[in-house]
Amino acid sequence: MVCLNCGAPVLENGHCSQCHMSYKLLAKAFNTSNYYYNIGLDRACVRDLTGAIDALNLALKYNKQNINARNLLGLVYYEMGETVLGLTQWVISSSYLPEGNVANKYLKEIQSDPMKIEQANQLAKQFNQALTHAKQGTKDLAFIQLRRLLSSYPHFVKGYLLLALLYMDNGNNDKAKKALKRVLRIDKNNTLAVKYLSDMGVAPREIMDMKESSKRIDIESSYVDEDQFKSDLQTFVEQGIDELDDPDESIGSFKEVNHNKFNLVYVTVGIIVGMLVFWLLILPTKLDSVNQKSREIKLDYSEQMSSKNVEIEDLKSQITDLNQQIEANNKVVEDEKAAEKEQEKSFGVIRNYVPNSTYDALVAEAAKALEASDYNKAITLCNVAIEIHEGEEAYYYLGMAYHNNHDEENAKATFTRLKENYPESSHIEDINELMTE
Amino acid sequence: MINFEEEVRKFKPSLEVSEAEDAIYNNDVKDITDVLEEMLQQVMERNDN
User: In Å, what is the CA distance from A40 to each residue of A50, A138, A183, B40?
Assistant: First the structure.
């Protein structure tokens, strides 16, 4: 036999050879510890978590190294939302038995997800804050804080109890009862919940019914319960606890929703919504934009048309003016022609009456001017003489005057006319000589 | 009738993660074995005297 305390051999007198402890007493203490562990286990199995905690704490008082009792105590704390207390128990358990201890598995599972530890920390902080608000009298803030944390942590028994207390203080016993029902669903024999219910005048029979209803929670399908509970809690937080279903009715069998069935519906609804959005929001905007553009183009064309019309009108008026000017000019030309004709007619009449001596006199004067080298006078006199009466002398002197005046072109033309009109003239030889020069 | 002030005072703050280490190190709850060891120690000291 070895000592249950230090593992040393036990002497025949029943005492340890090392620590001198009585084997019989130690065995009794260890047995009692296991006895209370069993009670704790039974209570935990029926969700009497408060009772389980009491029994397991007793088991640890008889044997603090009762690994099973410590691990179960940690688990019960964890279930009640006291994660840090649970972790504490598992860490101590692991220090007593580092190998082959289920606490290591729990710790590993929690440590593998840093979010879990952070969430547990947040839960504790939020609850402590709510508790401070409640103690300081800022109950509204406490309500808000508790609702928020319970929506995230639906197993947090202490939160429900404080919420129930706040409701009771508020005179809202119905809501307090509903919150306490939640506590009894998690922890069937929660003494504080039972005490609050009794103080509210709830009959013992009704309390028993509430406890019985907690049995209906399907422990095996904890995931479903969790979801159902979360959904109930959401309703509880959003619509008030009165809207919450009776626990008897709310707990049903788990049915997985087949989301594939709804995929087609989702797609159809999505398309319809998209079309409606297009039809009601996008299309009118597009049409407005197109109409606006069309109006702008029309306006632009109208402006261009009006400016062109104005231009056309201007051009028409210009044409009319020009036509009038042309008519006026034609009239002036006709008048001038008529005047010329009249002049010629008059000149012809005058010429008929002018005597031949005048021509001779003009030619003689021209010859004198030519001799005097007054070529311009000679040209004028010859031209006048030719107007009165064409004669070879006038042409000759005119050509000579042009020639001497170095106007060879007119001189040549005049001589040519003389040669054509008077081929028998005595001046032909002189003219030819001059022209060959 | 429940007295809110009195009842709310009974609520203890939840343990935060930063306080877990202290809670673990200060967890020296005595069990029967510790008590027996202490008693035995005292008896042995008396006998020595």
Answer: 9, 38, 19, 31
